[in-house]
Amino acid sequence: MLTVHLLGGVGRLSSKIFSTLILSLLVVTACSNNDNPIITPSPTTDAPASATGLVIEPGNLTVEVGKTVKVSALLNQNGDIKRDLPTQWSSLSPEILTIDNNGMITALKPGNAQIKAESLGRESLALVTVSPASVTSGAATTPATDTSATTILGDTAAASPELAKLRTIIIRPENEATQPTLFKFSRLQEQRQFVAAGKDSEGQDISNLTFSWSSSDESIAKVNSTGVVEAVATGTTNLIASAGNVTSNIIQIQVQEGTIRAHIKFTE
User: Fold this and answer.
1) Which domain holds residue 135?
2) What does the pLDDT look like over 226-239, one tens digit per residue?
3) What is the mean pLDDT of the chain?
């Protein structure tokens, strides 16, 4: 509160000056009691755009021993597709296959292996199956050419217009809006429905697709044709879905019997 003392003997204030002083004091007092001055900037509420994430394409790979195939990475942010990214590649099972800095995979021996792409602070995994060398393929060291991959895409396009447009597949637990990288089951025989969504190069959903579901170790968790996953034994396995020659993101399934509840870890 502001207090004004008028000293006697100095002079008298005219009624006009006194009224002006009182009015000024009222304005100052009102401003000092304002909890939200209009000059205070309002906090920003704009949330960052959600990102679909880093995607490896093609996702569904089967390579014969001794052959090579090239993969690439793209970043899908709400339909904004960025290609030709600076990408660091690695093989999680180098005894089965190797991958160089250009994304060229070389198959060494039969088995399943994951490859990892890292770019712009994000990472993505894809499952690669290495099959035995074909008896009719000639020398086992003959590398595969890009022409074979083009032929596969052409056959897919002829079979289904929807598959011709398909570029990425996203899987997640039903009723979860975010794409997880890890899902944990708390008890054996527990079941959970997973769903898949196919998207084109612009990030738009594609309807009328049929997905094939698979678990890398069905002795740990098995999945049926509709995406229902059931915990079988304690351990870890990978869940994927595919359509045509496109494979989804990988969700690691962990079965931990005796834990209190299931946990989900989400990507950014």
Assistant:
1) 53-144
2) 999 999 999 999 89
3) 74
Are 74 and 129 members of one domain? Answer: yes
| Burial 79-99, CB ≥16 within 10 A → b, else e | eebeeeeebebebebeebbbb
Q: Is residue 15 part of a domain?
A: no
The answer to whether residue 4 is domain-embedded is no
| Prediction pTM value | 0.43
* Rounded CA separation 56/54 (Å): 7
Residue type, 257: E
Handedness of CA 73, 76, 79, 81 (dihedral sign): negative
**Count of C-beta atoms within a 10 Å radius of residue 190:** 14
Count of the separate structural domains present in the chain:
2
Q: Which amino acid is at 187?
A: R
The CATH number for 183's domain is 2.60.40.1080
Residue 212, in any domain of the structure: yes
Domain-located, residue 136: yes
Instruction: State the DSSP code for 232.
Output: -
Question: Are 181 and 119 in the same domain?
Answer: no
15/22 Cα distance (integer angstroms): 11
Q: Structure tokens of 23? A: 């009015």
12 CA to centre of own chain: 78
Helix (H) or strand (E) holding 22: helix 15-32
